[in-house]
Design goal:
Its EC number is 1.-.-.-. This protein has 302 residues and is of the alpha/beta class. Helix content is 35%, strand content 12%. It binds nicotinamide-adenine-dinucleotide and magnesium ion (MG).
Length: 302
């Protein structure tokens, strides 16, 4: 049984020290990186996230759910009672299998759907597969993203420019469009955007532009489908420790100080994002529509 003191320790925590202020060693992985090889490992809530039935019976598709923020959201959704389809790149199979095991251990259905969201046809295939395997679909989390740091615009190739827009914003249009025919009133869409939408880093021009587009898409689509009882919102993370950052997402020399310039003085852990996605997906946020929830350690945002 949990004592009063233990309960207080869980419910009253200093956000500065709740997670360690990490100073990751310089490291590099080929894109897409794996959580399996991240040093120090990221906290996706495996040993901490406790559900309270807030998504009981829901059927969710989460893209990029093999690692990082998407994995933390998938773990939280399952522990809140949802069955979850996770989409990821074939190269991420090891990470995906681990997340699927955690979902299954929560007593929920896990469906794994590898494939490349830069391909338009796969964006509808992933939705149809998720809906048929889960017996329907009522929650979508558009979370997959590509971030490659390039110092000078002259060095940004057409190939990268196209790929960043395909994965980060065009796929969100295509997946949402395919999902709509499955989404009954009460369903939700949550898009992953970024603080980069308002405070672009000079080395992330293509990435940051897509994130601004995601905020705009979220607010527009939210108004379009609200009368149908479908809510669309976004979450804008600040610096979160995930494989995205070590697979050319940041210059490697920036990694040791990653996230230390936030008011909390530390990078965020993926599990600290999960409650925002749970809130925006659960019925308790019924009057929250077209909102971007900033989870960024205190950096001012509009
Ligand atoms: P991550 O690398 O763990 O997750 C990104 C995922 O996107 C990958 O796991 C991969 O499965 C998926 N993906 C990338 N390209 C794909 C493709 N072509 N086809 C299919 N899937 C593809 O990193 P993360 O940081 O958890 O990123 C999740 C989301 O959060 C992204 O949209 C990212 O832009 C956003 N975000 C992250 C941070 C951060 O600091 N980590 C900050 C702001 C926003
Ligand atoms: Mg991954």
């Amino acid at each position: 049984m949990t004592s009063m003191t233990e309960t207080t320790q869980l419910t009253f925590q200093n956000p500065v020290t709740r997670y360690p202020a990490i100073s990751p060693p310089q490291q590099s992985q080929p894109e897409p990186g794996l959580d399996l090889h991240l040093s120090p490992p990221a906290d996706r809530g495996e040993n901490s996230y406790r559900g309270t039935g807030r998504l009981e019976g829901r059927r969710a598709l989460i893209t990029g759910a093999d690692s990082g923020i998407g994995a933390a959201v998938a773990i939280a959704f399952a522990r809140e009672g949802a069955d979850v389809a996770i989409s990821y790149l074939p190269a991420e199979e090891e990470d995906a299998v681990r997340v699927a095991e955690i979902i299954a251990a929560a007593g929920r259905r896990a469906v794994t759907i590898p494939g490349d969201l830069a391909k338009a046809v796969f964006c509808s295939e992933v939705v149809e597969k998720a809906a048929s395997e889960l017996g329907g679909l009522d929650a979508l989390v558009n979370n997959a993203g590509k971030q490659i740091s390039v110092d000078r615009l002259e060095d940004l190739t057409d190939e990268q420019l196209d790929a960043t827009f395909e994965v980060n914003i065009l796929a969100q249009f295509r997946i949402a469009r395919a999902a709509l025919r499955h989404l009954a009133p009460g369903s939700t869409i949550v898009n992953s955007t970024s603080i980069q939408a308002y405070r672009p880093s000079p080395h992330l021009l293509d990435y940051a532009s897509t994130k601004a587009a995601i905020n705009n898409f979220t607010k527009g689509l939210a108004q379009q489908v609200a009368p149908r009882g479908i809510r669309v919102n976004a979450v804008a993370p600040g610096p979160i420790w995930t494989p995205l950052q070590v697979s050319d997402g940041q210059p490697t020399e920036a990694l040791p100080s990653f996230g230390q310039n936030t008011p909390l003085g530390r990078a965020g852990q993926p599990t600290e994002l999960a409650p925002a996605y749970v809130f925006l997906t659960s019925a308790e946020s019924s009057y929250v529509v077209g909102e971007t929830l900033n989870v960024n350690g205190g950096s001012p945002s509009p």
